[in-house]
Amino acid sequence: MGTFLLAGALVLTGCTSKDSGTPLGVGDKPAGDTGPAPKAKIVADPGVDAKDVPVLKPIRISVTDGQLTDVSVTNADGKAVKGEVAADKLSWANSEHLGYGKTYTYSAKAMGSDNKPVELKGTFTTMNPAKQARATVNPIDNATVGVGMPISVKFQEGFAPKDKAAVEKALKVETTPKVEGSWAWLSASQVDWRPKEYWPANTKVNVSANLYGVDFGNGYGKSDVTSKFSIGRNQVLKVNTPDHKLLVYRNGSLAATYPSSNGSDADPDRNTPNGTMIVMTREEVGDFSNPKYGYTNVKKKWSLRISNHGEYIHENEENRANIGRNNTSHGCVNLLESDAKALFDTTLLGDPVEVTGAKASMPTTSDVNDWLFSWDKWKSMSALK
């Protein structure tokens, strides 16, 4: 009995008659042949000489009135396409995807119930789309992040999938323990997954963006992308701006209190805005130059960025007289250097920062605005209703 082979991300097409479009099986009796035809018939889908076969189309070779004895599907380099014959030996199916713009060759043999052998040979060619779009996933592999960190899938610059539902159907989030969450489109080229509530501490997360071969309506997926990461301890930073202090809660208990000077109360444009943000970057030295307000070459230590709207948490010894007493910053949370360093050393990307008490609210144009939406609003931003 022959060896059953399959290999290399590929897709097979069914054998079809060029005249009728009907699947052509080995064992059909040619016109004018008066001899008895073998009972067994092999049919391939996609068919012989098929063109522009989708790379995700399943390959299936099947036989009636007999059993398969050998199946081989190979790419242009002669490498086998991975696949498996069913236990009843009536069909074969591939177990890996096909490549774009490739030609595949298949050969199948079977023994009929009348003990007569039949064979089917042919080739087919896969599609080669002009537009193939890449995507990235964040957090990256092996990262440990805070309990507010969303999962973000972003497409390459200049590409916005037309069929957003097709994208979401190709995305999968697996967590241990199980966590309720949903995808939401934050822009034409970015879709995020956020839990309903903050992640449970120490959750393990496995993200699969199976986008290869997916039809986006204006292009096709270039490749699959995955990520496995972990959620760290539960730490939440809280700032009620009139109190002039930053509170650190760890595992639900108050772990530290640091005096602060927050955004100017009198000017909404200089408030530290209300809302739930997350720590987006950690910079030992941050550049806070702002010619609009007349200062340049301003560097501050132990800087935690919480938006692209301009807000950070950082040391500001030059504002020591107001820290813990008055809100005088241009929107940042100013700390004493020793406190800023202590906070920096205990902070993860993705730690939530909850701000209350200000006259202004954080605009939803921030880079990471996932927690600025209610849960009902968030779910409504999914393409899958």
TrEMBL record:
Pathway: Cell wall biogenesis; peptidoglycan biosynthesis. Gene3D superfamilies: 2.60.40.3710, 2.60.40.3780, L,D-transpeptidase catalytic domain-like (2.40.440.10). The keyword Cell cycle does not apply. PROSITE patterns: LD_TPASE. It comes from the Bacteria. Keywords: Acyltransferase, Cell shape, Cell wall biogenesis/degradation, Peptidoglycan synthesis, Transferase. The keyword Acyltransferase applies. The active site is at H314 (proton donor/acceptor), C332 (nucleophile). Residues 235-356 form the L,D-TPase catalytic domain. SUPFAM superfamilies: L,D-transpeptidase catalytic domain-like (SSF141523). This is Ig-like domain-containing protein. It comes from Kibdelosporangium lantanae.
